[in-house]
Amino acid sequence: MTRHGKNSTASAVYSYYEKKKDAATSGYGTLSKRLGKDSIKGFDCCCLTLQPCKEPVITQDGYLYDREAILECLLHQKKEIARKTKEFEKQKKQQSVSIARNRQRYREKYLQIRDA
């Protein structure tokens, strides 16, 4: 860190070079970089697939989607929810079985202690 790094940076003593050096070392601040063609989505491209739309659908907010991509996404989410629900039910069943086993075990111990 530079000599003024720990002090107030609002004064004129903190030079332009020191500001740039501090920004580079800390990663804080703005760095300008030219955006290439690949980093900007085309106007006619789907927001999910980033490919040109064959059957475009526009939301009220102005987002453009391909109908096929939306349906695929919904089907995938539906399958994922069904899988997670099945997994949850299985886990819930295992938990109830283990609770029943523990209750039986404690009951047997209690009866042994009571009879002794």
Walk me through this protein's architecture.
The protein is mostly helical and 116 residues long. The protein has two helices and two strands, in the order H-E-E-H. The chain has a two-stranded antiparallel sheet. It has helices at residues 16-26, 67-115; strands at residues 56-58, 64-66. It is flat, with a radius of gyration of 31 Å. The model has no long low-confidence stretch (mean pLDDT 84). A hairpin with a 5-residue loop joins strand 1 (56-58) and strand 2 (64-66).
The average pLDDT is 84
Order of helices and strands: HEEH
Helix content: 40-55%
Strand order within the widest beta sheet: 1-2
Our measurement of the CA-to-CA distance between the termini, rounded to an integer number of angstroms, reads 76 Å
Assembly annotation: single chain
The biggest beta sheet, please? Answer: 2 strands, antiparallel
Q: How many strands?
A: 2
